[in-house]
C-alpha cells in the first residue's frame, strides 16, 4: 500500500473512531436532565419537531433517536402520533453532518482539535458536567479530520486501475448503485455516513452526481432497514416506530426515484437540475440531495401519518409489558395544577398497592393463584416503572409550582413513594430468593410465611379502596413486631440438616427480608 493508500486508511479509521465517539457521548449528553426536560416540553406545539431536529444533529444515529423515542412512548410521556414528527425531523437533523462535510473546513477542524486539547489540559474531560460534551467535540474533530485526510488522498488512490475499476463497477448501473448504497448503509447503520464517505469520490470525479444520488436513495432505505433489524427483538411501540421509520424511507424513495428516471429519460428539469441550480460544487449537490430526501420524508410523514401507524400496528401490536408499565392516570398538563396532580398521584399510588399481592403469586400453590396476576419479573419491572414515573411527575410538579400551597402534600406523597419503592424491591427479593429453593426442599414454615405475608398484602391492597379505615387499622395490627418469632425460625433453620446449604442461605435471607417487608408495610 502506497503513502496515499495509508493516508486514506488512517483517515477512514479516524472517521469511524470519531463517529463512534460523537454518537456515544452525545447520547449521554442528551440523557438525564435533558431527557427530563424533553419529556416536560414534548406536549407543546412544534416541540417534537425541534427536539427531533436537535437529537438527530447531535447523535447522528437514527437508531439512537428511535430507541429514545420508543422509551418515551412506552412510558406514556409521548403519544405515537407526536413521536412520528419527532422521528421525521431527526432525519433532517442528520443532514447537518453531511452539509458540514461538503464544506472546506480543514482550518476550522484544526482549530476545533486545538480547543479540545485545551479542554483536556484544563481537565474538563474529568468533569461530570462537561465530559460528554468535550469528548463528543473530540469525536467530531476526529471525524472531520479523518474526512479531510480522505479527501486529500482519494485523488491519488483513484489513479490506481483496480480502485477505479471497482468504483466504476459500483456506479455502473441503476440497480448496482442502489444496492451498493443499501448494503453499505445496512452494514454501517447510517445513511449519513454513506453519503459523507461518498463526497470525496464525487469531489474527485470518480463517480458522478447521478450515481451518487442513487446511492443516497439506496442508503436511506438501507438505514431504515437497519433500524428495523436493530428493533427486531423489541415489541410494542419500539417495533412499531422502527417499522414506521422504514416505511417512511421507502415512501420517500418511491417519490424521488420516478422523478430521477423521468429526468434521466426525458431531460425534463426536475431534481438533478434543481441541485445543479443550487450549487456548482458536486459535493454540495450530493449533500443537498441527501437533505432533499429527508425533507420529502418529513412531508410524507405529515401526509400519511395516521395510515402508516394503522398499517404498521397490524404487524407490531401493543405488548402486555408496555401496557403494564404505563401510568393510567398521570398526564403532563396536570403538573401546572397541584391539586389535580396530587389527586392523580394518589390514584396511581393506590393502584400500586393493589399489585402488592401479585409479587407472591409464583410461590403459592397453582390452584390458589390469581388468574390476573403476572409473573414476578414482569410485575416487578412494571411496578418499578410506574413508581419511577410518579417520582418524575412529582418532581415536575414541584418545579412548575415552587410556591404552591400544597408543598407539604407533595413532599408527603414523595415520602409514601419512597416507602413503596423499597417495599416493591424487598418483595421481589423475597419471592426470587424463595424460588431458588426447590419446592420439596422448603420447610413447612416457608409455605406458612408466604401465605401469611400474602394475607397481609391483601389487607394492604384493600387499603386502596377502603374509605372506612378498617383495613388500615387491621394492617397496623398485622404488622406488629415479629423479631422473636423470626429469630426462633432462624435458629430452627440453622439446626436443620434436611435443607442443603444453598437453600438454607436463601431461606435465611428470606426471613430477614420478611422482617423488612413487615416494617415497610407498617410504615406505609
Quick summary of this structure?
With 524 residues, this protein is mainly alpha-helical.
Your description of this structure?
- There is one protein chain.
- This protein is mainly alpha-helical and 524 residues long.
- The protein has helices at residues 3-29, 33-41, 47-59, 62-74, 80-93, 95-101, 106-121, 131-158, 161-170, 174-188, 191-203, 209-230, 237-266, 271-278, 282-315, 320-324, 338-355, 376-400, 407-436, 444-462, 470-478, 483-495, 501-523.
- It contains 23 helices and no strands.
- The protein is elongated and about 85 Å long.
- The relative contact order is 0.07.
SSE layout:
Layout: H1 3-29, H2 33-41, H3 47-59, H4 62-74, H5 80-93, H6 95-101, H7 106-121, H8 131-158, H9 161-170, H10 174-188, H11 191-203, H12 209-230, H13 237-266, H14 271-278, H15 282-315, H16 320-324, H17 338-355, H18 376-400, H19 407-436, H20 444-462, H21 470-478, H22 483-495, H23 501-523
Characteristic terms for this protein:
524 residues, mainly alpha, elongated
Q: Report the C-alpha radius of gyration, rounded.
A: 30 Å
Going by helix content, strand content and strand pairing, the class is mainly alpha
Cα(first) to Cα(last) distance is 72 Å
- Helix proportion of residues, in percent? over 70%
Unreliable spans: none
Query: What's the number of extended β-strand segments?
Result: 0
Reported for the largest beta sheet, the result is: none
Shape by Cα distribution: elongated
Kindly report the average pLDDT value: 78
How do the SSEs run, as a string of H and E? HHHHHHHHHHHHHHHHHHHHHHH
